């Protein structure tokens, strides 16, 4: 922990909370307190907002090339510090070190991607159809933004918002999740070293999310909210945005179907399932939540998946050879336990796992359930844990209907060797993203996001920067 920032980052300075409050950061592998971090209150949030508002005008005028180069330097610094950042992330969040290293690289890639996008923001000029007017079209940064991130990808979720905001010329107040503030503070340190001017990024960890964020959203100076988290909180924040018409983008929860057809290559499907289910211990919005497997291959699929799940090593993420770290906290694990117990009460069979181990830490074993009842609670609840729930289907229409039978629409996974079926089913899925014979869709160069109650807007890809840009059109006579 030595050298890790633990104070608020406001106006380019590391500060304590105005009321001196601190919050504990726990190691989910031991339950012990790692350190305490300054705990922002409403007054600190106002100071952070002041800093962002003050910096906005000059930051918007900065040359795109200068913003691009700051992001490029941040990309390089992140990679230089990858090992330390991965250890920090594992200690506060629990994921195995190999996954944490992967997340550092993923986060860094957002900075590289948006350093390239920063210099490609284009306007336009033209004569209107009546021939009597000209139009000048330019793009402007939307203004000071509030960024709110969850704990499950503590570095990447911040980078996915900060990258495009910096590229577009927006200033920011970032409120990370209270379980994982250290990664966000480390990110601020990286950006400051990369040359980001004071006040452009401000970071306010807090245990008082509502009291800190609501005044900002209702105050009229924040012009944009970019939120990643649960649909429940997303709805609440959208209502707060309505008062002052704050532009909002929302990356919300998922309930991903994972469909295996009878013509699928089962090795490919099981490999895909291991990623879609077990990445981040199942604590991912993209996690496969409902496995729909054609009746004729369900038993073989379940057997192979169980073999792979049983072979995974559970333990502290810092230990060599560990595949599955602890869940984020006791509440997260209790939710998984309850969902499994509910499924079993309704007739599900446990093929492996399903029993909470003794001892410290929030561990839960990789678990496979079959014969899961359609009325089980885990069918309409994000499990957010290492539990694969398998159901069977008989034909394509049934698979698609049941996959779409949810208010969420973030991602769906489809496994089939038939090209026509692959495209047909992908088109019919109500999802912002589809993994076709793959269990991984996330990539900085691709537009990430959902439909229905999984969100509004996209992050990443060439459209990611759009969320942080406005249009301005200037009309003039064509003389
Ligand atoms: P969460 O409870 O919604 O919290 C997300 C963030 O919102 C945290 O920083 C949280 O802080 C904050 N928050 C909660 N109430 C707030 C309020 N009234 N005002 C302002 N901020 C508030 O979600 P989570 O449990 O941390 O994360 C898991 C969820 O995120 C899952 O649903 C997952 O699917 C979703 N997720 C979505 C994506 C995506 O890209 N679609 C990516 C990752 C995760 P506090 O904890 O202090 O309340």
Description:
The protein starts with 7 loop residues before the first strand and ends with a strand. The longest helix has 21 residues, at 97-117. The chain is built from 13 helices and 22 strands. Helix 13 (419-428) links the parallel strand 18 (411-415) and strand 19. The chain has 479 residues and is of the alpha/beta class. The chain has a 7-stranded mixed β-sheet, sandwiched between helices. The protein has a 6-stranded mixed β-sheet with strand order 9-8-7-10-11-21, sandwiched between helices. Helix 9 packs across helix 10 (295-310). The protein is globular. It has 2 domains: 8-252 and 454-475, Aldehyde Dehydrogenase, Chain A, domain 1, CATH 3.40.605.10; 256-443, 3-Layer(aba) Sandwich (Aldehyde Dehydrogenase, Chain A, domain 2), CATH 3.40.309.10. Helices cover 38% and strands 21% of the residues. The mean pLDDT is 97. Bound molecules: NADP nicotinamide-adenine-dinucleotide phosphate (NAP).
